[in-house]
Amino acid sequence: MMDWTDRHDRVFLRQFSQRALLYTEMVTSAALQHGDANYLLQHNEAEHPVALQLGGSNPAQLADAAKSGAAAGFDEINLNVGCPSDRVQSGAFGACLMADPPLVANCIRSMQDAVSIPVTVKCRTGIDDQDSEAELFDFIGTVANSGCNVFVIHARKAILQGLSPKQNREIPPLNYERVFRVKQQFPHLRVVINGGITSLDQAVELLQFVDGVMLGREAYQNPYVLHEVDSKIFGLPASSKTRSDYLAQFIPYIEAELKRGIPLRHMARHLMGLFKGQQGGKQFRRHLSEYCHQDNAGINVVLDALAFTN
Fold first, then answer.
1. Residue 20: exposed, middle, or buried by beta-carbon count in 10 A (0-12, 13-18, 19+)?
2. pTM of the predicted model as reported, rounded to 2 decimal places
3. Which sequence positions are flagged as catalytic?
4. Cα 173–chain centre separation
5. Beta-strand (E) ranges in 177-296?
6. Which helix (H) or strand (E) holds 66?
7. Is the pLDDT of residue 172 over 80?
């Protein structure tokens, strides 16, 4: 979710559920060490519970990054061992690390020694030719022995040579059964499934076999899918709020950020899918796209776009 789930998007998504755990876009440990850590770690109190997702392969550097994340107030540190992009591979982290379970275990151990909040792992079911069930179990077992007890598993292997990151989200086919068998093999671990989940009804079905469900692209491209999370997943009273109601809740945040000098486009780009499939939805997206990038674009752009949906 790099360049997607930034701090503005996370505040927007929080409007739909008070209980869902949100994740940052992946931040590299090197960027935190050598870049503007305060900027990279900034987030809003409204986002909680929120996990900081890190990328890296240097145990000491990751420990420092985890410590910075905990000090900044994040609720969880997640090590991404599932991202297949070229720039991630060139930095020797992401999905390619699944080929070196002892290194991942060492990274997790160093991070856990540095912080008191949970340290978790996001991974794939395998990479390239290393995609047997036995190899996945070896990876999970080795990393679990370091003290990690939560694994978020994208239910398809990553093909690191010859496929783009976009293709790696669609090829090869999903293998939910393999994730189910991880839970069967390691019943003491918390296993969260990810990949291709497009509805809460589907999520509820999957929860018969695993402990949690992660929505990525669907939550971004169709954020209203989250409006029943608290009732269907966490048993809280159902919400009667409309899409317009959720946007109205977010408007004070937009106005506050505009006063801080943040351009409207940084917030408005996350609103594009709110009225997906609804009357006026295309006009809503078109108006935002056309006007949110203009100099001095203000809240009136959002309100005018909203008028198309009424």
1. buried
2. 0.92
3. 83
4. 21
5. 190-194, 212-214
6. helix 59-72
7. no
DSSP, collapsed to helix, strand or coil, labels residue 32 as helix
What 193-196 contacts at long range (C-beta under 8 Å, 24+ apart), as own/partner pairs, is 193/152, 193/153, 193/155, 194/122, 194/152, 194/153, 194/154, 194/155, 195/154, 195/155, 195/156, 195/169, 196/155
How far apart (Å, rounded) are the C-alpha atoms in residues 177 and 93?
26
Q: Where are the domains of the chain?
A: 7-232, 243-307
pLDDT in tens, 119-157: 999 999 998 888 899 999 999 999 999 999 999 999 998
C-alpha span between 227 and 246 (Å, rounded):
9
| DSSP reduced 3-state for 220 | helix
Q: Which tokens belong to 164? A: 């783009």
Give yes or no for a contact between 50 and 20, defined as CB atoms under 8 angstroms apart.
no
Q: Which two tokens stand for residue 67?
A: 């410590």
209 burial level (CB within 10 Å; 0-12, 13-18, 19+): middle
- Joined tokens for residue 269: 């780009």
Q: What per-residue confidence (pLDDT) applies to 309?
A: 94
pLDDT digits 0-9 by tens, 19-32 = 999 999 999 999 99
Q: Looking at beta carbons, which pairs linking 255-258 to residues 24 or more positions away fall under 8 Å?
A: 255/299, 257/8, 258/298, 258/299
**Class of CATH domain 243-307:** mainly alpha
Domain 7-232 has CATH 3.20.20.70: yes
